[in-house]
Amino acid sequence: MHLSISTMKVILTGFGKFYNILENPSTYLVQTLRDDPHVTETRVIETAAVAVKQELAPLWDHARASGEPTLFFHLGVDDSAEEVHFEECAYNLADFCIPDEAGWEPQEEIIFEGEPDVIHTSLPVAKLVEEVGLGCTTSTDPGHYVCNYTYFHSLVHTKSHANQFVLFVHVPPFEVLPMEDQLVIIRKLLGLLVPRLRAETASP
After folding, report:
1. CB atoms closer than 10 angstroms to residue 42
2. Number of domains in the chain
3. Engineering a disulfide at 119: which of 68, 155, 165, 170 sits with its beta carbon 3.0 to 4.6 angstroms away?
4. Residue 35: exposed, middle, or buried by beta-carbon count in 10 A (0-12, 13-18, 19+)?
């Protein structure tokens, strides 16, 4: 039987500045990874819930309408992290400790009515961490700020489509883990994950 390898679309996103993070590492990672052979499209999004919906809603809608195999790969910074965190899940809770860049500061608000309290990615996060190796770890705490908000939205919009996938990766500051080392980890992750998803979504 001949399998037609799918053209997996990979949408890589990062964020701009917020609060005292004037230079967000995810901005520079996304800009550098723009030319990665596994990446189809990149976006650096203002760190604000309204900007997340404005930027990503057309992409979620296109993925759903086209049926095109798609990976939404989100990057954000965790300034307390010492390793790269592959996030296993997102929570249906917006509980911002500081306003986002548009001035929104929700307190214990549900993100999506009618959705579960937590949604896990369908991707094998623990296995990916094991395969990528040093410098990364699993996490079940994406926070309650714009990163979690983004992850939960993406998971809701893709969870009923077998050929759509989402992963959120938190990176530490470059002072903790240099940009070059972070790029090695993310490139290795993309190199493992994307060909595998292409094969899984191949059609006979």
Report:
1. 20
2. 1
3. 155
4. exposed
